[in-house]
Design goal:
CATH topology of the largest domain: PH-domain like
Strand content: 25-35%
Strand order of the largest sheet: 1-2-3-4
Number of domains: 2
Structural class: alpha+beta
CATH architecture of the largest domain: Roll
Helix content: 40-55%
Largest sheet: 4 strands, antiparallel
Length: 165
Amino acid sequence: MTKTLTVYEKYLKQWPFIAIASLILSVVFFISFLVVADVLIAGYLRLIAFGFFAIGLLSLLKIKDGQVEIKLELDEDDVLRLIYRVRDRIIHQEEWSVSEIGEVKIDEMPNRSLYNDIMKSDRCLRFRRNKESDWLYLNKLSSRVVPLSQNNAEKVYSFLKNITG
């Protein structure tokens, strides 16, 4: 009998609002830049307009990427399969033998961006193979560690603890 668990990436529902608001503010500050005669104020307005444009563009890319669904399946042969989906399309799949997994822990996200400094509540899972000292990220997709909420991380942790013993 196959055991399954499905969790989702921590994803803000406000991304569309952030994208629209920042693009509108970008246009407002750009028009203000065109109208102002003072060079110093015009430079500040241009910088602010660019900042809001960058935030809007990055937010649109986040909306386009969508929320990642992580499905953990344990089959009869004690093989743990991790399936990553976005919009019902499989984008990545991994398989691990349950006997390979030694120790599992919930950890903070790796600090690779300013976002991780702001959002300290995001969690990830790390595991260590038997007879190895290096920790690996369980929820790593390509070169990005998928952020999980504390609740989803605990669900995955208890699922893995139940199957590894």
